[in-house]
Amino acid sequence: MSATSVERGRDVRRRLLRAAVELIPELGWNAVSTRSVAERAGVTPGLVHYHFSSLQALLREAVVDAMSTELSSVLPALEQAEDLAAGLDMLVSRLDAYDGMDAASLLFVEAYLAATRDEELRERLAAQLGGLRRELAAWLAEHGHGAPAATASILAAAVDGVLLHRALIPDSGAEELAPVLRRLVTSLDEQSG
């Protein structure tokens, strides 16, 4: 295979993944079709199955890659914080970018729902969530928190919960949530000691 055909293949694959990430929030996981992905990517439907074993394999890879990108930005941002309170404030302030109906929020919701019926997707998303929890736990431990693993689990669940609820009740911003989250994390730390 020539370098040009390899590059074209990579480009088609990237376009298919990007099209899937765009279509999942727009249409819903189950409404995305081979044809809709191919049309959005500007390729023939046969290329979807040339690059991926199935439409579900394409959707899985697209969502796992997109979620990995979103989650990978959390720890570097936390590491910029000078202390635990500043890190928690930063984490909560980042939530203001998501209103619950934005593409990233809808992608996460659709992926979580699809994972209830797709064991491979569930395992891959669980691995990502586990990685986030470990990173949060390490960051909490570095800042002297006494129960980093349990707190990281609660913190990740709280962030997910806020994002999920915002689609229905978009009334809580960073200014309201940050003090509550700080008290929760501090309380969990005090109870562990």
UniProtKB/TrEMBL annotation:
Keyword Repeat set for record: no
Limits of the HTH tetR-type domain: 10-70
TM region positions: none
Record bears the keyword DNA-binding: yes
Domain of life: Bacteria
Entry keywords, A to Z: DNA-binding
GO molecular function terms attached to this record: DNA-binding transcription factor activity; transcription cis-regulatory region binding
Known DNA-binding region: 33-52
Record-linked PANTHER family: HTH-TYPE TRANSCRIPTIONAL REGULATOR PKSA, HTH-TYPE TRANSCRIPTIONAL REGULATOR RUTR
Name listed for the protein in its UniProt record: TetR family transcriptional regulator
